[in-house]
Specification:
Elements: H1 5-34, E1 38-39, E2 50-54, H2 69-81, E3 87-91, H3 101-111, E4 119-122, H4 128-137, E5 143-148, H5 150-162, E6 166-171, H6 181-201
Parallel strand pairs: 1-6, 2-3, 2-5, 3-4, 5-6
Length: 217
């Protein structure tokens, strides 16, 4: 059979269009779910028992500072000091030896004036879905404020709604796209994965485990 170059490029164009539509459709779905719940000002948030600080590393693999890290910790510290929450869960990846996001997050938050007794580490927040579901199933929270950059908060709020959690997001200062192109491209795929996890795959956290008390008194 003779190769039809026009037909080949037609199929390439069709699949590319479907891929773009899927990405933007998932982003729209997540943005719609999070509308009005991602805010930049602490005072715009309700009082809830606990905030979940979504994990990120202080440094990149090449040793450079992660520009998302400090703004996220500053936002979490400001939220706690304003009295909007009574405790913080720092949820991140500690899946490999020598890599420990929660402990570093806790250390920096303590330097910023958050009492050690009010910070609980979630060492199994390997991905956002894990952090969200574990906040409810392991740490017993049904109303939370997520602390991260806006794009991340929106996805966490979407996931929270799917798992029966009433959630808001405090947006940390963002990073210009030009300085974090990989992160923003990866987020587009993460939005697709989140929608598929909820509506198609039925994805669950890698680990749950025993209940952990959070000091909210």
């Amino acid at each position: 059979m003779k190769f039809n170059l026009k037909l080949y490029w037609l199929w390439v164009a069709v699949w590319a269009a479907l891929g773009v539509a899927l990405i933007f459709g998932c982003e729209w779905r997540i943005a719609t779910e999070a509308e009005g719940r991602c805010v930049n000002e602490v005072k715009a948030l309700p009082d809830v028992p606990v905030a979940v600080v979504l994990g990120t590393s202080a440094r990149l693999a090449d040793g450079r500072a992660n520009l998302f890290f400090l703004p996220r910790m500053e936002a979490a510290a400001a939220l706690f000091k304003a009295g909007k929450v009574k405790a913080l869960i720092v949820s991140g990846d500690n899946g490999t030896q020598g890599y420990d996001e929660p402990t570093e997050m806790k250390r920096v938050l303590m330097q910023m004036g958050v009492p050690e007794a009010k910070i609980v580490c979630d060492y199994a927040g390997f991905r956002t879905l894990d952090s969200v579901v574990r906040a409810k199933e392991v740490f017993g929270q049904r109303r939370v404020i997520f602390v991260s950059q806006r794009f991340h908060n929106a996805r966490a709020i979407y996931l929270a709604g799917a798992f029966g959690i009433d959630a808001w997001g405090l947006n940390a200062a963002d990073v210009p796209v030009a300085l974090s192109v990989k992160t923003f491209l990866r987020e587009k795929l993460a939005c697709v994965k989140a929608v598929l996890d909820v509506n198609v795959l039925g994805t669950q956290p890698k680990f749950l485990g025993e209940k952990v008390a959070v000091p909210v008194e």
